[in-house]
Amino acid sequence: MNPLRSRRRAFTxxxxxxxxxxxxxxxxxxxxxxxxxxxxxxxxxxxSNLRQIGLSITMYxxxxxxxxxxxxDPSDRGDPSGWNRFPEFAAAIPQIGFLHEVLQSYIKSPxxxxxxxxxxxxxxxxxxxxxxxxxxxxxKYGTSYYYRTEIAARHARESSIETPTLINMLFDGxxxxxxxxxxxxxxxxxxxxxGHVKNLSRSQIDQAWMTPLHAGDTxxxx
Length: 222
Known about the structure:
8 helices, about 40% helix, four-stranded antiparallel beta sheet, single chain
């Protein structure tokens, strides 16, 4: 074998570095695309879950003369004192069922309360309550979705809510599940009182929180 010919067939260090650089560049281009596609798929499943839960809430209201579910979510159990302006409700929170428990007979599968993007969280976005929701909120508490509990605290009915298309009822437990890192942004799949589901930015869901259930009410945040 001719040693010169053998050396010509081998990669030089520079050629090897160029190949590695090209592979790294392609990975940097394709990886965000892959993550975006996977994230969109999870978001679609999550939105479908919320629509199904919305239908179960409609069935519940039909059985209870238009009254929305008297239920709480894990953040309420984590800090009942956030509802001190409703003292009777705050005192009863440990005995009030979670929404997924209250709706159990209206749901075909408990998996409908599991968001595929649920990776847990340690602080509730809207109240700042510290809550250990790892490894996921669904695994820890049975639900990935959190309730606008003011609806239960005020004993709201279908007939009493004035702008059902603008008021959030159920939403992702954390905004980073469907958000982005670069740029950093929070997004929430949200079920509105009228039953439609929409993916909202943080500013949009904050606006929904500020929409009162009834004229003259204050913000729904505890």
